Amino acid sequence: MAKKEKLKKTNDERILDQHHIDYQEISFNWLEKGVTALNEAKKTGVAAHSILKTIVLKGSEDANDYLVVCLPLEFEIDLKLIANQLEKKQVHLADNKKLINITGYVHGANTPIGINIRKGFPIYFDERIKDFDEVSVSAGKIGRSVRLKQNDLVRLVSGEYLKVQ
To answer: CA–CA separation, 4 vs 12, rounded Å?
Structure first.
């Protein structure tokens, strides 16, 4: 009988461990053709609306005015609505080519956990997730996610809720 290979923990999983937050590790082979988080959700029976994407936004106020918005994969983001709620002139998507320098993560691995803990950026969540018991977010590495209680995640990153659409 073959041993199951134990995955090395990501920094974000270590952060969750340090804060005594229960989570489930989820990994998938993102190199396979057609593998997406939504496809994986269907295969594993996880509600697709509980899988959150992490969007890094740049405000117009100064060079270091970044913020993060997390919302279910299936929804889009209304930048004008977010700017209004945050009383900013405007917000726009951060440059994907510069994400590693901005957040410390490559595109596809951004996570509210590490970004908040390492960079201190404010984290906002789509208000529609308030009713979710559990959510999944990136574990800081492409092909790795963590599933945890929604209120544990929001509390850990001092998150706030916004209307994003």
So the answer is: 22
Whole-Å CA distances, 89 to 16, 75, 107, 140: 35, 23, 26, 30
Kindly report the pTM of this predicted structure.
Answer: 0.88
Answer for the pair 134, 147: CB distance below 8 angstroms, yes or no.
yes
Task: Write 73-79 long-range contacts (CB < 8 A, 24+).
Answer: 73/37, 73/38, 73/48, 73/49, 74/38, 74/48, 74/49, 75/126, 75/128, 75/164, 75/165, 76/165, 77/164, 77/165, 78/164, 78/165
| Short-list 62, 87, 82, CA closest to 71 | 82
Contact by Cβ (8 Å): 9, 15: no
SS3 152: helix
Q: Which of 101, 123, 119 is nearest to 55 (CA)?
A: 123
The pLDDT tens digits of the residues spanning 148-160 come to 999 999 999 999 9
| Tokens read off for 66 | 């970044």
- In 3D, which of 118, 108, 161, 98 has the Cα closest to residue 139? 108
Give the whole-angstrom CA distance, residue 80 versus residue 120.
Answer: 23
